[in-house]
Amino acid sequence: MSEYVEHSPSGTSVGRVEKQFFTFAADEPLLVESGRSLGPVTLAYETYGRLNASATNAVLVLHALTGDSHAAGYYETSDSKPGWWDLMIGPGKPLDTDRYFIICSNVVGGCMGTTGPASVDPATGRPYGLSFPVITVGDMVQAQKCLIDHLGVGRLLSVVGGSMGGMQVLEWSVRYPDMVRSAVPLATTTKHSALAIAFNEVARQAIMADPAWNGGDYYDGEQPAHGLAVARMIGHITYLSDEAMRQKFDRRLQDRCEISFAFEEADFQVESYLRYQGQKFVDRFDANSFLYVTKAADYFNLESSHGCGSAVAAFAKAQCRFLVASFSSDWLYPTYQSRAMVQAMKKNGLDVSFVELEAKWGHDAFLLPNARLSGMIARFLDRAAADAAKEDARAL
Amino acid sequence: MSEYVEHSPSGTSVGRVEKQFFTFAADEPLLVESGRSLGPVTLAYETYGRLNASATNAVLVLHALTGDSHAAGYYETSDSKPGWWDLMIGPGKPLDTDRYFIICSNVVGGCMGTTGPASVDPATGRPYGLSFPVITVGDMVQAQKCLIDHLGVGRLLSVVGGSMGGMQVLEWSVRYPDMVRSAVPLATTTKHSALAIAFNEVARQAIMADPAWNGGDYYDGEQPAHGLAVARMIGHITYLSDEAMRQKFDRRLQDRCEISFAFEEADFQVESYLRYQGQKFVDRFDANSFLYVTKAADYFNLESSHGCGSAVAAFAKAQCRFLVASFSSDWLYPTYQSRAMVQAMKKNGLDVSFVELEAKWGHDAFLLPNARLSGMIARFLDRAAADAAKEDARAL
């Protein structure tokens, strides 16, 4: 099949979708990596397309730091925006819902329907706050596996995600190798660098410096909005790039002809953009969840958790085919980090395709239209589906 | 003379030095670029070496964002550290105090002895706070010129500085071309990029988000220490580089063998380093001054203020010889920005030496030992001094 060689980035929408919930670990709590336990756990998730009879067409999409289960379509016809990866998921799109059954769930520790620090602790009847156990990427994946089992999928056709979603992809590939036929880690890393940790740490300090944060116990009052906004602004700088910012903003002024010689109002468009992003984020995200997901990303180290410090040893556990993509202007997870993981995969004889995509938009590029990436993902899934069909045929 | 070809980075110390003060603009206030006026103005400054009889050996050193007038030597024998550029200034060092008369003054708007927002407004008897006029790099340089006049120097042998100090160097070269024989802008830019503005804006927002900031009116109580610490942490990330952080910290843990699975204590050395830098800064720097100096850096645009938007037109006003240096891992003011300024200088037929120095330590590299940079600066000043001597001889 070569229908995707001339892949059109358009496709159509999956249309109206609904957030679903799966609750588990009520009787037997989930043991998390810190040694603590958590239960019951509810995962918010969405599915698009239909699971086929042999349950071989399921693709798990994994979201980034502050993403959610709403990857495609819309909840209400009045929604101003579709799900966060709508350009990639839908009929005729790379994650083709006419062919694949797409699953996306919100991570544990998040605040978009999945159990996290803002959830009520059944033991106390009050929100967990900081008593919520610190979560790792491994814990997120462990919870996702419960959902995949529940949905009756024995082996995923693919696991796909960028940034912290890509970390989950990597974790899936070595934690549950039998369950993963192919994997697409995008704009990601096998371990958070000191630079990436540094940005997250400053963002956390901004939240924790806000008196309203109150040691994480703020759910009866106002949330630490100032600190969370600053944290988000820091994040947004890392999602762009020097060149992206120059092209998008340069030194253009915001709604004024002259600099203000004052501090209250934004002079430059880039300042106005960051303030707006900070404010917008406060309305949709929980400050404690931000602490938890950034900590999970910082703790992520596939090499130490699965390979005693060696990436080669870690990927010795993987069995799937990989498509790895980095973006030339991504300075949060630069290409050299993807190259290192690709080398470690290859040393294990794994089937790996790797591409560094020329993109000026920095780390966020994986969320933006990119015909080359779309085509590569479409063809990659097509190959994985062909393999699955062959195996199905042999099994019959 | 070639005594510096085999330049040793050692040299000796200038020894004990004293902060001095120069007050002016008492009767006739300084008119600043915003259109407001300021007076009286006190500049804190230090000098090292002796001004020669013909006053041709004066070198003005210009400090970066949060620097001060204490560039070399020590105040007390018990001081744990010398001035911030002690490795460059002293007998036998590149800025050789046996030959040159070195002057360094704290910028207007600062908080190290020079008039700034923490100073008392004579009109009210209370600290200026935000009623202090917003200051530009041009204003800083205008005030420095008053000091240079006062010291009896008609023409500076050289103006030398890195980062925001480099901006002042560039400003000097086009604002007072008759007074500048040579100029050494290091790790700097003719205009702040959107990325650089973005980092400063987030730092300012961190300060202004701190309730203790109180609209800049906090001098009767505690200063906004939490916000200022976060602002400084952001700054410190930009002063390093991905590679520098990897070499300096990587993922090494701080005083522990295992990650903590908690938020209060630092897990990683890089977190501990940033927290320490933030705390240390709070003890020595005023939060409002941080707002003022970052704003001055953001507003800096030599091209618009001196060339109607053209760097070539701006440098048409310059007459001096330049030594421009950038650092390969500096992503705050990357080399392409230095290259652009060098091209604009060359289009005006100016005598320009340019070097991109291989350095892994990011933007801060200009403050660190670098034998190649030291040698280049020494030789460059030597040439300028030779020129000055020739002119002196002709004038006799």
Q: Your description of this structure?
A:
2 copies of one chain form a homodimer. Chain A is α/β, with parallel strands linked by helices. The first copy, chain A, has 2 domains: 20-191 and 302-395, 3-Layer(aba) Sandwich (Rossmann fold), CATH 3.40.50; 198-291, Rna Polymerase Sigma Factor, Chain: A. The first copy, chain A, is built from 11 helices and 14 strands. Chain A has an 8-stranded mixed β-sheet, with helices on both faces. A two-stranded antiparallel ribbon of chain A has the order 2-3. In chain A, a hairpin with a 4-residue loop joins strand 9 (120-121) and strand 10. Chain A is globular and about 75 Å long. Chain A starts with 19 loop residues before the first strand and ends with a helix. The interface between A and B is large, with 61 and 61 residues. Chains A, B: Keywords: Acyltransferase, Amino-acid biosynthesis, Cytoplasm, Methionine biosynthesis, Transferase. Chains A, B: Its main location: cytoplasm. Chains A, B: The active site is at 163 (nucleophile), 330, 363.
The CATH architecture assignment of the largest domain in chain A turns out to be 3-Layer(aba) Sandwich
Number of helices of chain A: 11
Q: Bin the strand percentage of chain A.
A: 5-15%
- Uncertain residue segments of chain A: 1-9
Distance between the termini of chain A: 22 Å
Category by helix and strand content of chain A = alpha/beta
Number of domains of chain A: 2
Helix content of chain A: 25-40%
What oligomeric state do these chains adopt?
A: homodimer
Strand order in the sheet with the most strands of chain A: 1-4-8-5-11-12-13-14
Shape, per Cα inertia axes of chain A: globular
Greatest chain-chain contact: A-B, 61 and 61 residues
| CATH top level class name of the largest domain in chain A | Alpha Beta
Instruction: Spell out the helices and strands of chain A N to C.
Output: EEEEEEEEEEHEHEHHHHHHHEHEH
- CATH-defined topology of the largest domain in chain A: Rossmann fold
Mind telling me the C-alpha Rg of chain A? 21 Å
What is the name of the CATH superfamily of the largest domain in chain A? Alpha/Beta hydrolase fold, catalytic domain
**Overall pLDDT score of chain A:** 95
The main pleated sheet of chain A reads as: 8 strands, mixed
Number of strands of chain A: 14
